[in-house]
Amino acid sequence: MKRIKRWIGMLFILTGILFIGVFLIAIVNQDTSPPSNINKYEKVKRYELY
Fold first, then answer.
1. According to the model, what pLDDT value does residue 36 have?
2. How far is CA 11 from the centre of its chain?
3. I need a surface site. Which of 11, 15, 19, 46 has the fewest CB within 10 A?
4. How far is Cα 14 from Cα 50, in angstroms, rounded to an integer?
5. Angle (nearest 5°) at CA 6 between 8 and 12
6. pTM greater than the 0.70 cutoff
7. What CA–CA distances, in Å, run from 42 to 5, 31, 33, 48, 49?
8. pLDDT at residue 39, as a whole number
9. What is the DSSP code string of 1-50?
10. Cα–Cα distances in Å, from 25 out to 12, 14, 20, 32, 47?
């Protein structure tokens, strides 16, 4: 019986560690969009068209 309780405890601990790891990865990989006031084509507009 002690063996089963130990396995169940280990399962809960590993599940918790997995959940925390996935949560941390999701926080780190959040999509941060660039500010909308930055003009992406500023350098391109410097050149004159003939």
1. 64
2. 25
3. 46
4. 66
5. 35
6. no
7. 64, 24, 18, 13, 15
8. 72
9. -HHHHHHHHHHHHHHHHHHHHHHHHHHHT---PPPTTS-TTTTGGGSPP-
10. 20, 16, 9, 14, 42
Tokens 């050149």 locate to 47
Amino acid sitting at position 45: K
In this prediction, residue 29 carries a pLDDT of 82
- State the Cα–Cα distance between residues 38 and 24, nearest whole angstrom: 30
How do residues 11-48 score in pLDDT, each as one tens digit?
A: 999 999 999 999 999 888 886 665 666 677 777 777 77
pLDDT at 9: 96
